[in-house]
Design a protein that fits this description.
alpha/beta; 5-stranded parallel β-sheet; about 30% strand; elongated
């Protein structure tokens, strides 16, 4: 896994380099105090992870993050900054993480471990960045029970909590994949492995009971045939 560091402050780059080199197998292939030089490097070299400061000259980190994201959705962007007010924008960019300076050893080491786990799996498909209060939470997809669209928002539910995702339900379904998840209704996605009870309902539809969830989830008439096929009904 190749990474670069973009930060105009030398001490900050050195601190981050220390943790990456001593607590992970992630390779640092470049470090830049100039965002423009970093962009030129990204045009030529393959990079998996970008550690990015926000308050920088010429191009601020948030703008740079948007440029990098437009270049490649595969690059994992981690904002490391002293400014907490950009967390929402980072979430909208689907940043892998957002770390506030000064950070603890535990916080940065946990991040590096998460990156390595994702690299071992070879895809981002097993985890999802979600919003809880003022924090970005990395959620294991296997823990998701269902997702729903509510008044313009997409809510992800586990058996213990609920989170907001800055994607439409259709976009989220593409991320989660059809191997484990099914679009039961225009307003719902369910984790097929969480279904524990299927109840026949009006107009030849079904209501689903999921493990650890009190709410019943509908299967619409438009999706009933495919659902029956998948469930062997």
């Amino acid at each position: 896994m190749n990474s670069i560091i973009i930060d105009d402050e030398f001490p900050s780059r050195e601190e981050l380099k220390f943790f990456i080199e001593n607590f992970s197998s992630i390779k640092i292939v470049g470090e830049f105090e100039s965002p423009i030089e970093a962009l030129a490097f990204l045009d030529k070299e393959k990079v998996d992870v970008v550690f990015l400061d926000i308050n920088m000259p010429n191009i601020d980190g948030m703008t740079l993050g948007k440029i990098i994201s437009n270049k490649s959705k595969e690059i994992k962007i981690i904002f490391i900054t002293a400014h907490k007010q950009y967390a929402v924008e980072a979430f909208e960019l689907e940043a892998f993480d957002y770390i506030l300076k000064p950070y603890s050893k535990e916080r940065i080491v946990n991040l590096l471990k998460k990156l390595e786990r994702v690299d071992e799996k070879g895809a981002m498909g097993d985890i999802l960045s979600v919003w809880k209060g003022e924090k970005i939470v990395i959620l294991k997809c296997e823990n998701i029970c269902y997702c729903e669209a509510v008044e313009g928002h997409t809510i992800v539910h586990t058996s213990q909590d609920e989170y907001v995702v800055n994607s439409s339900l259709s976009q989220l379904f593409k991320k989660l994949g059809e191997e484990q998840f099914f679009r039961t209704h225009r307003a719902f996605i369910v984790n097929m492995r969480k279904i524990e009870e299927i109840t026949p309902w009006f107009n030849n539809t079904f209501m689903l009971r999921l493990t650890g969830i009190d709410k019943e989830i509908p299967v619409s008439r438009n999706n009933i045939s495919e659902f029956k096929h998948l469930m062997g009904i």
